[in-house]
Amino acid sequence: MDNAEFMLLALETSKQALPNCLPNPPVGCVIVRNGHVIATGFTHEVGSHHAEIDALSKISGTLEDCDMYVTLEPCSFIGRTPSCAMEIVKRKVRRLYVAIIDPHVKNNGKGIDIIKEAHIPVVVGLCSQQVSSFLTPYLCLS
Length: 142
Description:
- The chain is an alpha/beta fold.
- The chain is built from 5 helices and 5 strands.
- The protein has a 5-stranded mixed β-sheet, sandwiched between helices.
- Helix 3 (about 85-90) runs parallel beside helix 4.
- The termini are far apart.
């Protein structure tokens, strides 16, 4: 599989979030080591795991040899759940691929900034068209 295929798998995984994740957006996440998917995750009901944390909870240790694919920018802030961006930094993911930036006023690039400040490379825009067409109706702008 290539990077686009992993992101499209994250998109398919995100569909498992519906309808329980609402009003949060249905986000999907895939973690890959040596070209093989080792964990997937999706957003659960409000107050429960976001997609990244769902996937991270299925594996232990640091992920310095793993890439993460997520359909929406990881959250930067602590609300009912911890900051996904901070958890990604803690687990030392090697590289992060993000389909689209979260337009929510509390995030909107801040999650990416946290991860980049930790010297984790971030690639934004992978399969953005396919992900946007699915995810846009669920995104909150405020």
